[in-house]
Design goal:
Length: about 260
């Protein structure tokens, strides 16, 4: 008889301090590191919280999920562009599958026997996929803003109304790029897969199904476009300031010459 477990992942914050969050939890802590906090609610119910702002609920009632999401949001500033969510399934079929067998499909993983190490690997990759959705939306938002400035430059010969807008846009781009770069390590193989061929297999099959590497490369490409936009804007702003400085100097020299002529 098959048993189906529901996984829900949500990216709700830009960064989390798991040590501070740990102190406010009442349930049993299954595992803890600077990267990951695992809460055990029941023998087959877990909450995984990651320091890059994602939370994954394995077989957790909706009411408990909302309690944890509220707690996480209260400990750190929420994500810039709202939450991203993903739902995935794990199906345990001990009568049809060998205990070491696994089958990955687009919406679920079918296993012969479900153990915590498998749950941990699956939830980690679902969290990464959800985080990628968030960063992709964030980059798309920045690209749209860059496009607005480019069109304004094309039509009006200027791209911003003031230096404050320029600084805000550049700061937002740099901050977003740093967030993405600082979280790139989440695609690395976890330690558990190095010594267990079954976990390694399910890790790489799930990673391929979620297109983790492909989506990261797309993010890197879009980030380069953002960087080029920043460089163009800052160069134009620098040139504008230089022209204004030169004009000021010319006006001062002209004024001095006129005053000399008046005196004589």
């Amino acid at each position: 008889m098959a048993t189906i477990y529901r996984i829900r992942a949500a990216h709700v914050a830009d960064k989390l301090k798991l040590k501070d969050l740990r102190e406010s939890l009442a349930h049993e802590i299954e595992a803890f590191s600077n990267y990951e906090l695992v809460v055990k609610l029941a023998p087959d119910s877990y909450v995984f919280i990651y320091n890059y702002g994602s939370a994954v609920f394995f077989n957790v009632p909706d009411s408990v999920q909302e309690q944890y999401l509220t707690l996480i949001r209260n400990t750190k500033e929420g994500a810039k562009i709202g939450d991203t969510n993903e739902v995935f399934l794990v199906e345990e079929r001990p009568e049809d599958f060998d205990p070491l067998s696994n089958k990955v499909s687009f919406d679920r993983v079918v296993v012969g026997k479900l153990l915590f190490p498998k749950i941990k690997i699956i939830c980690m990759l679902v969290a990464e996929s959800t985080a990628l959705d968030y960063y992709d939306a964030l980059i798309e938002n920045l690209l749209e803003q860059a496009s607005v400035y480019s069109k304004k430059l094309e039509k009006q010969g200027k791209f911003l109304d003031g230096s404050e807008d320029l600084l805000k846009f550049v700061g937002m781009c740099l901050s977003s790029k740093q967030e993405i770069i600082s979280n790139l390590y989440i695609v690395d193989s976890p330690d558990e897969t190095w010594e267990n061929s079954e976990l390694d297999k399910i890790f790489h099959e799930l990673k391929m199904m979620f297109e983790i590497d492909v989506r990261y490369r797309a993010l890197e490409y879009k980030s380069k476009i953002i960087q080029e936009s920043i460089e163009v804007i800052t160069d134009l702003a620098k040139s504008r300031r230089e022209v204004m400085l030169e004009m000021t100097i010319i006006l001062l020299i002209t004024f001095e010459l006129v005053m000399n002529l008046v005196r004589h």
